[in-house]
Design brief:
The structure is a single chain. This protein has 469 residues and is α/β, with parallel strands linked by helices. It is built from 15 helices and 20 strands. It has helices spanning 47-50, 90-101, 106-122, 156-168, 185-202, 224-236, 251-264, 281-290, 298-303, 311-317, 328-331, 336-351, 359-374, 407-414, 441-459, and strands at residues 6-15, 25-32, 37-42, 56-59, 64-67, 69-75, 125-131, 136-141, 146-152, 171-176, 208-215, 239-244, 271-275, 293-296, 321-323, 326-327, 391-394, 420-425, 428-432, 435-436. The strands form three sheets. Strands 1, 2, 3, 4, 5, 17, 18, 19 and 20 form a nine-stranded mixed sheet that branches. A hairpin with a 4-residue loop joins strand 8 and strand 9. Helix 3 crosses helix 15 (441-459) and helix 12 (336-351) packs across helix 13 (359-374). The radius of gyration is 22 Å and the shape is globular. The N and C termini lie far apart (45 Å).
Length: 469
């Protein structure tokens, strides 16, 4: 490292900052020893900076340099469940998942999560909102709107998921479910508090984007669940993301539960609806008026046949909108380029308007927009001095994608994982040509394959018979 403490300087790049006050430019970017962007500019390096000897200097040779993607809605423990239930809608798919994961213990879920986090990083996702798998072992029945509970796992089951994201080096906001319906209420609040404290103590501040409530009223039997979630939000000063109105199944009972959140005072800045595909006009208007946002999962909604979120309407209402990759078991490939293209193309097809959502707007939603929705845009989501240097080097010439007519359109529409050459978190290389630099990567792969078979056998999931290898 140089005298100046500069860790990395990238020169000769087409920089796509995704900051609202700056368009793309040809130039350079420097990363300080603290992992944050210390300077950036157009053209060649200033003469004074050239003479410093700024740590590693990388010539991008005209490649795109852009911020890492932010997945504002993810279930990363599902990395070993890709291709599961290929023809089921939400509730059938969740049911099979629940049956499978019932056989997992804390070490299984650690390796599942670690593998999923490394997969995100290798594909250019550098920050994620992660719905941790609940300690409660059970199964939801949509027809009766009831959940059958089999057991409650040790708290280590939850904590090991925090450990996995930390060990992978993924910046993560961890969502914790408040299981007050299935335990004595104060015991559930105590366990929630211990989880928040464990997160704060065990994950370095630079990797932790904080804690959040895992909103679960969609599967709850009582309005008290909404009030409990609001209490957890208030006690810990955190937000909440609730799966809501995702599927067209059982719409009446889902819509009734919107009132539970409304009356509990949950709707406010920092409260997010995950999916929000099927609200009525009143729900969308009230959510926006109260400052609540939504997170859109284009690939997942298509895979599960859930429907198409009305993004133009939410934008008109002024709702914060994030974008997520959801489960690896319902996106199958955790590909943010694919996710944004499916999003743009679906909106254009449904609205029969090729300009309803432009590539720069969609890129913003999957980076800075997601960071804003999560309340972490001061740290991630765009390339700006003072923010973490979470960087993607994407080479449109390898393989060659042809002449560049429009930088944002070419990056979003013509490039993909095949063009993703390097991924940096805090200026440190975490993946190159899709291969992780993490020393645990090979073990994570081996553990995932072995443990998925063992867990499937223990849980008697019907998918066990379909495992080819």
């Amino acid at each position: 490292m140089s005298e100046s403490g500069t860790l990395l300087t990238i020169v000769n790049a087409v920089v796509i900052p995704m900051a609202d006050d700056r368009d793309w430019f040809r130039g350079w970017l420097a990363v300080g020893a603290d992992g944050r962007i210390e300077a950036m500019g157009e053209g060649a390096l200033p003469p004074g900076r050239e003479s410093i000897g700024s740590g590693e200097v990388l010539d991008a040779k005209g490649a795109f340099l852009a911020p890492g993607f932010v997945s504002a809605h993810s279930h990363i423990f599902t990395s070993g469940m890709r291709g599961m239930t290929p023809g089921e809608p939400l509730y059938g798919w969740v049911g099979e998942q629940s049956t499978f994961i019932a056989g997992a213990d804390e070490e299984d879920v650690y390796w599942f999560t670690l593998h999923g986090c490394l997969d995100f990083l290798g594909n250019g996702v550098t920050s994620a909102y992660n719905f941790t798998d609940s300690r409660v072992v059970g199964k939801y029945d949509a027809e009766t709107d009831r959940r059958e509970i089999y057991a409650v796992r040790p708290e280590a089951y939850l904590h090991r998921q925090f450990d996995a994201a930390r060990d992978a080096g993924l910046r993560t906001m961890n969502a914790i479910r408040l299981d007050s319906e299935f335990q004595p209420v104060e015991e559930a609040f105590d366990a929630f508090g211990r989880a928040v404290r464990y997160l704060e103590a065990s994950v370095p501040p630079e990797l932790s984007l904080g804690a959040s409530v895992f909103g679960a009223v969609q599967w709850s039997a009582s309005a008290e669940a909404a009030r409990d979630e609001v209490r957890a939000m208030d006690e810990h000063g955190i937000g909440n993301q609730a799966h809501f109105l995702e599927t067209s199944e059982a719409l009446d009972q889902q819509r009734e539960k919107f009132r539970w959140y409304e009356e509990a005072g949950a709707l406010r800045p920092g409260f997010l609806f995950g999916h929000f595909v099927h609200p009525d006009t009143y729900m969308a208007r009230v959510a926006a008026e109260k400052g609540a946002g939504m997170v859109w999962q284009p690939t997942s909604n298509g895979r599960l046949g859930s429907g198409v979120a009305d993004i133009p309407r939410y934008r008109e209402l002024g709702m914060p909108i994030g974008v997520g990759l959801d489960d690896q078991s319902c996106t199958d490939v955790s590909d943010p380029f694919q996710n944004l293209r499916i999003g743009v193309y679906t909106q254009r097809a449904v609205n029969q308007d090729a300009s309803v959502l432009m590539p720069r707007e969609m890129l913003r939603m999957h980076t800075l927009g997601s960071a804003e929705a999560l309340g972490v845009a001061d740290r991630v989501g765009s390339l700006e001095v003072g923010k973490y240097a979470d960087l993607l080097l994407v080479d449109p010439s390898s393989p060659d994608t042809g002449p560049v007519w429009d930088v944002h359109a070419h990056y979003a529409f013509a490039c993909g994982l095949r063009n993703l050459k390097r991924v940096y978190v805090g200026g440190r290389l975490v993946a190159e040509d899709g291969v992780s630099t993490n020393p645990l990567a090979a073990q994570a792969s081996a553990e995932l394959h072995a443990r998925v078979r063992e867990v499937a056998s223990r849980s008697a999931a019907r998918s066990t018979e379909r495992l080819a290898w």
